[in-house]
Specification:
Length: about 575
């Protein structure tokens, strides 16, 4: 179906139905989806389970175009549900597990979802809903049908006891397997993804089959994926980044996807990495940045002699290269593509990854573009760039600055969304009549066609003399400090302000060893914040200097891709 270079063959269709049928036929005995510590699902098993589930949904009155919600943690069952919904012509509505119950209720009502797939752990988030609004509620853990009168406590007991009250869908539709399904069109909507962005306005992004499948196919040469690859999935499947590139793409090319049953903390992740030995992973910057600050740098600088010579570039590069070998071993030793996207990566951390010869790659995209717009593989990564544009997409810089070349990034092509669900006005605001999608991101190209991201248009601050100040650039300087975990800069009453969340765990150890009282520790924190302000101001232009620093006592609230929800702190 898909040629080696992702180009259309004569009879090819960009639908999830064709992706599934083609790959399951070619890779029937390969592992498709599995937990790291469970029995795996082969491609032939995957197709069988999807067929059973699709027939059941049809018997529940689900027809072409109906919306069906999926609310659950990453699992093989999540992928089965997604393909069952989309390949029968219905529309998947993936919901992020971290969403608040009120936000989930809004999404279910706004989308008009007829059926809900829900995991046992998240069942409490929908308990207050009137279940009579839905045709059926299905337990994602094992595809059991949930009685609308079931409470969370009762559900947990029924699962533990293996109660017959939880009727398994497989047993209900086994005799109907193989029923011919209606063909799905490329322009049919496959998914409505509700975003929770930095501006706080949730939008339902309508992505067609062609949007998703074309983007996966066009992106396939960036990691050069094949049937021998093993992908360890750690980002939420309800986000388009993981869904398109971490589920659809590997399924398309016969690769295997592994899931972890618990949150990917170090204690859970390390054994999984050793067992799976992944060749590919997709992550957000926060994961590797936290590892760099809490594990890699303390290990590098624990010896005095190393701290003294670390400032010399040649020696630093040699140290980083040795650390890179250990890091690669930590990830199982087989990693060849470590994709980073969703937010900006710290320059300091990227410099380490580059000098460590770690196989990282930066990508840029949005939910509205299905998602990937630009990216490079590990061999072609260029420091601070997201890489060249995905072949087949048009990207230009609108109204570029005459000197810097920085302007708004606009995109046109097969993976640009159909629009925002039930919101034509907002759709018209971002998609021009000529089909250009206005990203709201600022960027520029170098002479080799590599794209560089400079921040969000809405975040840009106008200096006293008309200069453009990019908060993200200042924050990257602040975050270089060993005791800073994250920061946020903005303008308040004419002053440039920084909110800083410190590494309190590290400070607690330091203050304890110094024997400081609580009041002395508070005074020390005030001094440290002032020291950071002074050090940052020595490294930035005069019009970007910070006037005031505010201590952020707890982590910032973030979007699913770990970008800070700026509107909560700047309004």
């Amino acid at each position: 179906m898909f040629s080696q270079h992702g180009t259309r063959t004569e009879h090819q269709q960009f639908t999830l139905q064709h992706v599934l049928e083609d790959s399951c036929r070619k890779n029937s005995s390969h592992i498709a989806l599995t937990f790291t510590d469970d029995e795996s699902i082969s491609y032939s098993d995957l197709k069988r389970q999807i067929d059973h589930l699709s027939v059941f949904l049809k018997n529940q009155g689900v027809v072409h175009g109906d919306r069906i919600a999926i609310l659950g943690e990453n699992s093989p069952q999540w992928g089965v549900a997604y393909f069952a919904i989309t390949t029968m012509g219905a529309i998947a509505v993936p919901i992020l597990p971290d969403f608040h119950a009120s936000e989930i209720h809004h999404i279910l009502r706004h989308s008009g979802s007829k059926v809900i797939f829900i995991s046992e752990r998240l069942y409490h988030k929908i308990e207050d809903l009137d279940f009579m609004e839905f045709n059926c509620i299905i337990l994602l853990n094992d595809f059991s049908i949930i009685n609308p009168a079931t409470s969370k406590a009762t559900l947990r007991q029924l699962i533990a006891e293996g109660s017959k009250e939880l009727r398994k869908i497989k047993n209900l539709v086994l005799s109907l397997a193989g029923l011919i399904q209606r063909e799905v069109s490329e322009d049919d909507i496959a998914s409505i993804i509700y975003t929770s962005g930095t501006t706080g306005h949730s939008k339902g992004v309508m992505l067609t089959h062609k949007n998703i499948v074309w983007n996966a196919s066009a992106s396939s040469k960036i990691p050069d994926i094949n049937e021998k690859d093993r992908m360890l999935s750690v980002l939420p499947l309800a986000h388009v980044y993981e869904c398109t590139l971490g589920l659809i793409l590997p399924i398309m090319y016969g690769a295997s996807v592994y899931y972890i049953k618990k949150l990917p903390t170090a204690a859970v992740l390390l054994p999984a990495l050793e067992k799976v030995k992944p060749t590919m992973m997709l992550t957000v910057p926060l994961i590797i940045e936290k590892m760099y600050k809490t594990r890699i740098m303390p290990e590098i600088k624990k010896r005095k002699i190393v701290r003294l010579v670390y400032k010399f570039p040649m020696i630093r590069k040699r140290i980083h290269k040795l650390a890179g070998k250990k890091l690669t071993e930590t990830f199982g030793g087989a990693l060849r593509f470590f994709g980073i996207g969703g937010a900006a990566l710290s320059p300091e951390v990227e410099r380490f990854l580059l000098e460590a010869e770690f196989p990282y790659a930066i990508g840029y995209g949005l939910t509205e573009t299905s998602p990937l717009v630009a990216g490079a593989n590990a061999e072609k990564t260029k420091y601070r760039s997201t890489g060249p544009v995905v072949p087949g997409l048009e990207v230009r810089i609108e109204n570029p600055h005459p000197k810097s070349g920085i302007g708004e990034i606009v995109v046109r092509g097969p993976s640009v969304m159909k629009g925002y669900y039930r919101d034509p006005e907002r759709t018209e605001e971002v998609i021009s009549r000529e089909g250009w999608f206005h990203t709201g991101d600022l960027g520029s190209f170098d002479k080799n066609g590599y794209l560089y991201i400079n921040g969000r248009m809405k975040n840009v601050i106008l200096g006293s003399s008309g200069e453009n100040i990019y908060p993200e650039a200042i924050e990257s300087v602040i975050n270089r400090s060993d005791i800073v975990l994250e920061s946020l800069t903005y303008q308040d009453e004419g002053q440039f302000v920084a909110r800083i969340f410190l590494d309190y765990e590290k400070l607690d150890v330091e203050f304890s060893s110094m024997g400081l009282t609580e009041s002395q520790a508070r005074e020390r924190i005030v001094q440290l914040l002032e020291d950071i302000r002074r050090q940052v101001n020595e490294q930035v232009s005069s019009f970007s200097r910070i006037s005031r620093v505010i201590e952020q006592p707890e982590p910032f609230e973030k979007t699913p891709t770990q970008k800070i929800k700026r509107y909560l702190y700047t309004n």
